Amino acid sequence: MIAAADQRSTPVSVVGAKRDYISHSAITTYQQCPLRYRFKYVDALPETVVSSALIFGGAIHSALEFHFTERLCGNESPSLDQLLDVFQEAWQGRATDYEDIRFGKGEDHNSLSALADRMLTAFRESPAVASDDIVIGIEEELRGELIPGVPDLLARIDLLTTTSDALVITDFKTARSRWSQNQAENSSSQLLLYSELARRLMPDREVRLRFLVLTKTKKPTVEAFNVKVNRRRSHRTVLVVKHTWRAIEAGHFYPAPSPMNCPTCPFRSECNAWTGD
Ligand code: SF4
Asked: Which ligand 1 atom is the nearest neighbour of the CA of 271?
């Protein structure tokens, strides 16, 4: 870790068990379903069920992290077999944390292993990966106060690189289909928040934001999307966090059922039993 910006403690019970910070993921969870936020962060209920997509995405992330860690160490890029070994190890490590993995239709561990093989092959061959940028951090944690009165934001940055004139924040994504530039711009709230913290790390450098998107298609693609750092949108994103936090702090926890979120929610039985307390 190259910077743990601000170690100020802001213990607030609704921020979550053993936490004194908020994350973009927690904010997003609340925005998608306030009751799910409560079950996960406030009540810290065990999660026994998980979607295969979550485990798969995490295991692909681990393989990419290994690739860039080897570059950071000045080593040769890992072989496909090495990346697949990291993928399998990460899959096993994550899978043992749950009692039930919910696979999609026609999916199983073997089909997802074959998909990982195709995706990591595409990753190794992608020009988007063969850049001269200098890797300075992988899974970097940055932390700091963005809004007075709101707990620190903790950012975990997938990949931090430098060019001759800029600091580049890259977020890895696995997606069902190819992204458009518009989709990248619309998904940029997390990166915009992270850019506010990264700016403090190297105040003299321009901060650039980038998604590296690997598709889970029959013929996987790997594409990089640069996202504009727009101060007006950054400010708006910070304000959204502020108002979301105010709702969390006030204890507004209620179910927000949706066909997108409920099928993979690990708290469905607790949700059914919820009586509004
Ligand atoms: S089942 Fe749906 S409504 Fe209930 S907590 Fe989970 S996401 Fe929210």
From this structure: 4
